[in-house]
Design goal:
With 307 residues, the protein is mainly alpha-helical. The protein has one domain. Helices cover 78% and strands 0% of the residues. The longest helix has 27 residues. It is globular and about 55 Å long. The N and C termini lie close together (6 Å).
């Protein structure tokens, strides 16, 4: 049986194709974050992450304020998922943007996103007793192989670069992957329990913003920003964060958390291409082949089957 059929959909029915399209749209928008952040001068990676996620959290809270008030009882009943997800959302951007700063845009994004499906499956197995399908494992193995090719190719060109502590960047990427999987699982758990996708995402982001925005003043008290820096920061907050996460929450109405995080492996491909074309990071032939393998894995995951 198709595992996505176990999801509880609130509101109008959402087709699987529309749900997948929404998640892929989110992936495309998220894939631009590293390139945009690389052009912001005089602001630390953690401050960029705190601003982008903190402002988007406020926007999501305002956008969904009526719905949050209407569903406050259901949200209170799911407070464990709300608090767990909010904490993960608060940590994720700090680790994600720092990983890109230390390891490079391509590798930082690859590690942060590519490891999330594995952690998502661990959560579903340990906390829900759900075993992934055979199709998921085939797709994951293909994507993991492609990610390894992409990472090793990029690492070979990074050895003499000025990206800082590469190992620390990988570690921060793993932390970002863990928190990404955690808040995806928390959001999916709330949606399955009857909370709307918009409210599930909004409440986590709104609570996270109450931590991230005050932290911003501590992280970057003496920043001197030009008009281009301000525009890029606003872009990160509004487009990839606000619009992207609304689209991601819409897709979670139908798609499971492990499937959703697997689909988001398209993001590092987009990030790597933009890093090469715009940021001028180097990528060897195995890296491009790795991207092709990742796309094959995503195609396998998107095929309809009964097992």
């Amino acid at each position: 049986m198709n595992r996505s059929s176990t999801a509880v959909v609130t509101g109008p029915a959402v087709s699987r194709h529309k749900a997948i399209a929404a998640i892929l749209l989110a992936c495309f928008l998220w894939g631009t974050t590293g390139t945009a952040a690389s052009f912001i001068q005089g602001v630390s990676p953690m401050a960029i992450g705190a601003f982008a996620m903190g402002v988007s959290g406020l926007l999501m809270g305002l956008y969904r304020l009526t719905g949050l008030l209407r569903e406050r009882r259901a949200l209170c009943q799911q407070y464990r998922y709300v608090l767990c997800g909010a904490l993960a959302v608060a940590v994720y951007p700090l680790a994600f943007y720092s990983a890109m700063a230390f390891a490079g845009v391509a590798v930082g994004t690859v590690v942060s996103i590519a490891c999330a499906p594995f952690f998502s499956v661990l959560l579903e197995i340990c906390l829900e007793g759900k075993a992934p399908s055979r199709r998921w494992w085939i797709s994951f193995c293909l994507c993991a192989g492609g990610i390894l090719m992409l990472t090793m190719s990029k690492q070979a060109t990074n050895l003499d670069s000025a990206h800082g502590d590469y190992t620390l960047g990988i570690g921060l990427g793993l932390l970002a992957a863990t928190t990404y999987a955690l808040y995806s699982w928390a959001a999916k758990s709330m949606i399955t329990s009857g909370v709307s996708s918009a409210s599930a995402m909004s409440v986590m982001f709104l609570l996270a913003s109450t931590v991230l925005l005050p932290a911003l003043f501590i992280l970057q008290q003496d920043a001197v920003l030009g008009s281009a820096d301000i525009l890029l920061l606003l872009y990160l907050a509004v487009v990839p964060m606000f619009v992207g996460y609304l689209a991601f929450g819409y897709g979670l109405k139908v798609v499971t958390a492990s499937e959703a995080t697997l689909l988001t492996l398209l993001e590092p491909v987009i990030a790597a291409v933009l890093a090469v074309v715009i940021v001028r990071e180097q990528l060897l032939l195995p890296g491009w082949l790795g991207m092709a393998v990742i796309m094959l894995g995503l195609w396998v995951q998107n095929q309809r089957c009964d097992r």
